Amino acid sequence: MRIFSGIQPTGRKHLGNYIGAIAQYVAGQERGEAIYCIVDLHALTVAYDPADLRAGLYDLLAVLLAAGLDPERCVLFRQSDVREHSELTWLLSNVTSYGELSRMTQFKDKAGSARELATAGLFFYPVLMASDVLLYRAQEVPVGDDQRQHVELMRDVAQRFNARFGDTLVVPEHRIPAVGARIMDLQHPQSKMSTTTGSVEGTVYVTDAPAAIEKKLKRAVTDSGDEVRRAVDKPGITNLIEIFAAVRGEAPEEIEAELKDARYGELKSAVAGAVIDYLAPVRERYADLRGDESQLEAILADGAERARSIAGETLADVRERMGVGAPRRDRPLR
Ligand code: TRP
After folding, report:
1. Which residues in the chain show pLDDT less than 50?
2. Which residue, of 92, 213, 216, 252, has the greatest Cβ tally within 10 A?
3. 147 lines ligand 1 (CB under 6 A)
4. Rounded distance from Cα 128 to ligand 1 centre (Å)
5. Residues 6+ apart with CB under 8 A from 198
6. 135 Cβ below 6 A of ligand 1
């Protein structure tokens, strides 16, 4: 089983990202051949600052390593280091229609009403994402539900390519993580915890100090009533129970049974303690790793080399199939 996922190097990662994506990546190392890409080229599609992009990339890499991604057990690399991604994007743009890209909801949301001013890069975002996955002939793409349409597109593109040029690309499957998708903002438990749209007080960052985590959880909004149980009219308490369950690795039902006589304040203290214990070792390792940028670059260089050896083969096959470049004599495809 080959797994591929990409993660944006922008924005401080929070508890929702950690539980929903990063912890799943770590688990993916056990389930199969895992390939993880820090997608700096995708980050160019929104307004950004070049120096912040580099710093954000190191921040993210240090978080991923601190969380337990092991460069010996997975391929971890920076997208822009493997130029095959850019080239395949161009090639695949010729089996992708203008219409389907115009229907991508993420493009419509990000472009907003000023569609004429949206960059071509933003429009091509899904083609670059398809290239990321298809270059590695990955079978499984663990990524949030918000990426469903992009995964559908890459499946269509792979199928269309294979139908037109002969069997070359693997059609990947979407795998939505079971947990973490529902980690909500502590101040606005109706909305997802988010770096871009959430509140700072309602967002627990992976690198927050224990005192900050404690404060944010103690100030989390709760609901009317006094029972510690999940219910649609109790979004605040439901969120706290689900966070507690996720960090303890237990089912929410077990947490409800354990805390059925607890008060809201006791629930908050218990969740704060559990989240602090969960993130403290990550924060410590992060601090050690982040300081040594040349070591981080060495890890990226090694990952890029391994990624390139896989991506290069797929790209050579695609070029051969599409009839571009010199014909291959060593291993002609048929
Ligand atoms: N678009 C994805 C996101 O925003 C990031 C991404 C880029 C990705 N390339 C990918 C995810 C390839 C999975 C596979 O979350």
Report:
1. none
2. 92
3. yes
4. 9
5. 14, 185, 187, 188, 191, 192
6. no
